[in-house]
Amino acid sequence: MKAIYICIFIIFSIPFISCEDANNKEKVVIYAASSISDLLIEGYDIFSKNNDIQVVFNFGGSISLANQITKFDSPADGVVFIGEKPSKILSGSKKIDKKFSYSFLTNGLVFVGNKNSKPIKSLEDLLYLSNYRIIIADPKLAPLGVYSKEILSNNNMYNQLEKNIIFAKDAKAVHSSLENHNADYGIIYYSDLLISKNLVNFENIQEVSKYSVNYYIHVMQNSRNKIQVDKFFKFLTESDDIRFSEVIFSRGLNRLNK
């Protein structure tokens, strides 16, 4: 298989004035799915106006980040991951404090193409096209890749399309590649479609659009900042702040506990 890895690894930190922590802000590190990066950044911006807690985000594929935590003891205080597999990786390594775990949001999947791609009515139409590229997230690194491969395999398409498949590191890399015309078709999250400028949603590909996936939140067992990170997580999952609710709604997401 021709596999091209498109790596996007974003470390986002909010700047603060101080060499000596003059603002006295308590710092927590959160590893999170790249597909939810914009929402978490905006959520923290709202949260920080009333809370003296500094949050540093490390965004990437949820499976890749979970493996970093379990294999290399990466210093995460909490995680916001999509799909069940990353949570199982952490749970199996006893990294999660089960007293601080939440279901968060639900997202959908869509099959899309860039504006120059040929219209298709079904996945089978791809078998009759030539010189096109399908980009999906790598199943070894990101839950989106697990679902994408599962969809294609369940429809007996994965092996037949293998020569046309390109791998990306995470959901944001898939979205970016399609936006920049580095691929013709792909499977992305519905939330990414809503912020797209150049993508066409093939809504009739119901094998993809029928999928929904959940985000899960966990505080790490060995964190020294459990109270602080849990306070931010409770804001994400429980806050009735109108601004944050509008951010969630604008991305086509739904809270699971509201």
Task: Explain this structure.
The protein has 258 residues and is an alpha/beta fold. The protein has two domains: 125 residues, D-Maltodextrin-Binding Protein, domain 2 (3-Layer(aba) Sandwich); 105 residues, D-Maltodextrin-Binding Protein, domain 2, CATH 3.40.190.10. The chain is built from ten helices and eleven strands. Strands 1, 2, 3, 4, 5, 6, 7, 8, 9, 10 and 11 form an eleven-stranded mixed sheet that branches. Helix 1 links the parallel strand 2 and strand 3. It is globular and about 55 Å long. It starts with 9 loop residues before the first strand and ends with a strand.
Q: What keywords describe this structure?
A:
258 residues; eleven-stranded mixed sheet; disordered N terminus; D-Maltodextrin-Binding Protein, domain 2; alpha/beta; 2 domains; 11 strands
